[in-house]
Amino acid sequence: MAATIGQCLEAAFRSDYKNFEVVVVDDHSDDNSVEIIKKYPCKLICLEKRSGTSKARNTGARNSSGDYIFFIDADCLLEQDTLSIVNKTLFSNETGVMIGGTYTKMPYDRTFYSIFQSVFVNYSETKNIAAPDYIAAHAMIVDAVTFEKSGGFPEDFMPIIEDIEFSHRLRRSGCRLLMNPDIQVRHIFNFTLMKSLRNAVKKSMYWNMYSLENRDVFKDSGSASIELKTNVALLFINVILIVLSVLLDVPGLLYPVIPLFMFNIFINRKLLMLFYKTGGALFGAKAFIYYTIVYPVPIAIGTFRALINYLSADRQIKIKNAVRGKKREEGS
C-alpha cells in the first residue's frame, strides 16, 4: 500500500469538492504506509492484525461521520471533479440507492497491459448503467444508513469479489444499483504480462466459484460479460477443431474456424473498437490479438480451477452428509 497510498491521498485532497472527510484503514501493513498516511489530514485507523479487505472497509465505514460513504482502493486516484460529480448524482437520486463509478479508460501507468485492463474494466462496468449487476468497491457510493442496515461487506468470504456479494445482497433487500460512468478513478496497475495473466486466473477462479455456488455462471455480469465468455468458448472450440483436423487428417474440420473467429469479433466489436479509440491503431491491434488469443487462456485456467474446487467441496459435503446419515441409522 505504501507505493500508492500517498498518491491516492494527494488526489483526494486536490478535489474541487471540499465537504468530505477521509478515513483510512491500515490493515496491519508491514511497510511505511502509516508514516505516509499521517502526513495527511485524515482519520487513521490501524487494525491490530491482518484482517482482509472486507474488515478494513467495514471498519472505515463505521468510523465515518458522513451521510454517504465513498469506497475507494489505495491504488486508485480520484479525478479532480470526481467528488463533485458524486455530489450531483446523489442530489438527483433518492437514498437507498447504491451508486457506482468505474476506471478511467487511460490508467495512471501507460503500459500496454495496464491500459488493456483499464479499458476492459471501464467497458464491462458501464455496459448497463441503469441496472448493473454489481457495483465495484473501487468507486462505490452508498448512504450510511443503508450500509449499516446491510451488515457491511462479508468478512468470512473469499479474498476478492466481496463487493459483488455485497451488491447482490443489497439488491435482494430492495436497494437499487445505479452506474454513473462519469464517476471515474484512475487506477495504478503497473501490470506486466505475467501480472495481467495472474490477475486473470485469480479473478476468474474466485468469480466462477461464486457463480457456481449461486447458479449464475452464464449471466452477463460486468467483467464476467457475455462477450468475454463467448471469447473464451470460441477460442477453445477453434483450438479443438484445429487439433482434431491435424490428428485425424480431416481438413473439413477447419471450415468453421474462420466463421467462428469472425463471429467472435462481431460479438466483441464494441470493446475492440474502444481499444482502438483509446490507444490508437497499433494499441488496438495488439489489444485485439491479446484479448482474442492470449487472454482467454488464463480465464479458462481460472474457470477450470474453480470447477475443480467446487466439485471437490460439493463431494466433501455429500460425504459428510452420508456419514451423518449412516450414524443416525446406526443409532436408531
Describe this structure in words.
The chain is an alpha/beta fold and about 325 residues long. The chain is globular, with a radius of gyration of 22 Å. A five-stranded mixed beta sheet has the order 3-6-5-7-4. The protein has twelve helices and seven strands. It has helices at about 1-15, 35, 55-60, 80-90, 110-125, 145-150, 160-170, 195-215, 225-250, 255-265, 270-295, 295-330, and strands at about 25, 45, 70, 75-80, 95-105, 140-145, 175-185. Strand 1, helix 2 (about 35) and strand 2 form a beta-alpha-beta unit. Residues about 315-330 have low confidence and may be disordered. It folds into two domains: about 1-190, Spore Coat Polysaccharide Biosynthesis Protein SpsA, Chain A (Alpha-Beta Complex); about 190-330, no CATH class. About 55% of the residues lie in helices and about 10% in strands. The termini are far apart. Helix 9 packs across helix 12.
